[in-house]
Each structure stands twice: as C-alpha cells, then as structure tokens.
Design a protein that fits this description.
alpha/beta, single chain, disordered C terminus
Length: 214
C-alpha cells in the first residue's frame, strides 16, 4: 500500500476575552480553512492532511482536534469557542509543539504547518518563556516545520520575530479586513502544498505577494 506524504496543519487559536468581539468571524474563518484543506487534499492526492486545533486562555488549553484526518472534520460553532480570560501564549505554544512532536517523531515523510492567531501579546504564561519557545522553533524549523503568526492590536512583526517567526500577517478587527486575511491565508496554504509537491522550500515566504492563486 502506497504511503502518502503527511501534512499536519496545527492551528493555535487565542480564546482570551478580547477575542469575543470577533468570535463569529473567527469561527467562520476556521471552518473555511477546513474546507480549503479538504480541497487541497483532493488537488494533491499524494498528500494526506490532518488538522489540529488548540485554543487557549487563562483557564488553560483546549484540544478541539488533534491529528484528525481533514476529511472527517465537522465545523466548530459558538459552543466550542467561547473567548474569556487572559493570554498565556507561550504556554499554549509549548504545549501544542510538544503534543505535535509526539505525533510526527517517528515519521519520515511529513511537513508541519503551524498557524498562530492572536489579538494580543503574551501576558500570563507560567511554564514556558519566550526564550524557551524561540529555541524550540529554531530547532523545529530544521525539520520541515513551518511557522506563521497572524495578529491584531499589537506589534505583530516585532513579537513574531522575538520567537523566530518570519511569516507574519496583520489584520484589523473588522469583518472586511478579516475576510481578506482569511482569503490570503487559504491561498497561501494552496501555494504551500504546491511547494511540497515540487520539493521547494516551505519554511520561508509563506505569505508570498506573487502567489499565483492570490
């Protein structure tokens, strides 16, 4: 039986209180990403895509999906995404990276695409520091992990750079801007899968301006 190339889509989503004003748009955007990834899997049949969704706030992390085949995913709704409390971003990243490492550590034919979406900087972590996260990301990028950071209401590029992430996108918290952001995110995923097929670099330039699908 032919083994397909596994692509793990790990989405780490801020569920702190300040995300409440854009809750419906976030839910819609995630569900659209799932549909996009389902389409990508059909367009690139040599690839097998999995979705992991971890949300976080001051009450801890919630694993809504982990390494689930995208073909079997159902939409999330407002019952499963309820913003509240603070933003322990480093702890959420450390938790999610370790959990995903346990999934792919024995694989040889894989890529991991990490998408972090937040509207604020770290303010409540207890287990991990920024240096811990930067060191982990630096190491994982050497082994076919790609990291992207999407943010609002803070200096997105500065913060992402501080933890060694160069693929960034900023959005304003209004419906029109967020729709544009999610559209760009989806087209970039298609470009990413094409790069995997063509064995090109997948670590950098995730949000390419000359993306042919844009």
């Amino acid at each position: 039986m032919e083994t397909k190339h596994q692509v793990h889509n790990l989405i780490i989503l801020d569920e702190s209180g300040s995300m409440g004003s854009i809750k419906k748009t976030i839910i819609q955007g995630f569900n659209e990403i799932v549909q996009t990834v389902k389409g990508i899997e059909q367009d690139f049949p040599e690839q097998e895509h999995f979705i992991s969704l971890v949300t976080f706030n001051g009450r801890g992390q919630k694993v809504l999906h982990f390494a689930d085949p995208v073909s079997k995913l159902e939409p999330i709704d407002e019952k499963r995404y309820q913003p509240d409390a603070s933003t322990p971003l480093y702890d959420a990243l450390g938790f999610s990276f370790a959990k995903m490492q346990s999934v792919v550590e024995k694989l040889t034919d894989f890529n991991v695409l990490v998408t972090i979406l937040t509207d604020g900087e770290e303010n409540a972590s207890r287990e991990y520091s920024g240096q811990d996260i930067k060191k982990t990301i630096d190491g994982l990028k050497l082994n076919r992990w790609t990291f992207t950071y999407i943010g609002a209401d803070h200096d997105v590029e500065r913060f992402a750079t501080s933890i060694s992430i160069t693929n960034t996108m900023t959005f304003q918290k209004n419906e029109a801007d967020m729709k544009m952001m999610f559209a760009k995110e989806r087209s970039s995923r298609e470009f990413y899968s094409r790069n995997i097929r063509e064995k090109k670099d997948t670590t950098n330039d995730f949000y390419k301006d000359d993306d042919p699908k844009k």
